[in-house]
Specification:
The chain is α+β, with helices and mostly antiparallel strands. About 30% of the residues lie in helices and about 10% in strands. It is elongated and about 80 Å long.
Length: about 260
């Protein structure tokens, strides 16, 4: 007896292939924006850590080269413009500078203030001034923008130092790529609002001068005075108001 075996070859129909590709497309459309967003904030977090480290390294080099801390130097000469110029020498190179200050005016005498470009609130809804507006600005080789505020009193921490960690690139938002730190009398840089024995008095309603903000001044909403202590939370990756969430994946996204 002769047996005949039939080979059954199974495959996908064109309709099945198209349906599968459609499902893959829908899933990709739903997940890729999230992955891109997460990557963007991971980059910003790494840039923030690098900026904080570089500020501290520059502060220590300044102390080594001048035999005095930035705080002591700034208090002694009472001139943030000169102090920023000396501090900028501790970076590899300065790409450009701006002499814009809070008192700057245009050729017609109109106030133009100290904002070489626009910064906005954490949620992007309000235009905000620079919190460091007495020294001018400099751009380092990484494009970061750095400025100082008012000189401290002798024996007090200061001045505030503001840094846009990725320069003029977006998003240019307080607490996202624009942060405020403070020099200390012992030669370090700390997030503005972090406790320290030589912190100056707490700020009044408008923290324009050399003062200290409360550590709870980090909110997604409100005026710019409520968005000034975010560097503390960005450094620890801790949500300012919700212990169950983090800073870079939750707070900056408004969660």
């Amino acid at each position: 007896m002769i047996h005949h075996f039939k080979n059954n070859i199974f495959g996908f129909t064109l309709a099945e292939v198209l349906i599968t590709l459609g499902i893959i497309g829908v899933v990709a459309a739903m997940t890729i924006p999230t992955l891109v967003g997460n990557y963007k904030y991971m980059v910003l977090q790494n840039q923030f850590k690098a900026a904080y480290s570089d500020l501290n390294q520059a502060a220590k080099l300044f102390q080594l080269h001048h035999d005095i801390t930035v705080s002591e130097y700034n208090a002694a000469n009472n001139n943030s413009v000169n102090t920023l110029k000396e501090f900028s020498k501790e970076f590899n190179a300065v790409l450009k500078t701006s002499d814009l200050k809070h008192s700057s005016t245009d050729s017609d005498g109109n106030s133009i203030g100290a904002r070489p470009y626009e910064w906005v609130s954490i949620n992007g809804t309000a235009k905000l001034p620079s919190n460091c507006d007495t020294s001018g600005f400099f751009w380092d080789t990484q494009g970061r923008v750095i400025a100082f505020d008012d000189p401290p009193q002798a024996g007090e921490n200061g001045p505030k130092v503001c840094i846009d960690i990725n320069g003029e690139k977006a998003p240019n938002r307080y607490g996202v790529d624009y942060f405020i730190f403070m020099f200390t009398t012992d030669g370090y840089v700390i997030p503005w609002g972090q406790e320290h024995k030589d912190n100056p008095d707490e700020c009044s309603d408008n923290p324009y001068y050399n003062c200290t903000v409360a550590s709870n001044k980090c909110r997604n909403t409100g005026n710019w005075t409520s968005q000034t202590s975010c560097a503390i939370y960005a450094l620890s990756n801790q949500h300012p108001t919700d212990s169950g969430k983090d800073y870079w994946n939750d707070f900056v996204k408004g969660k």
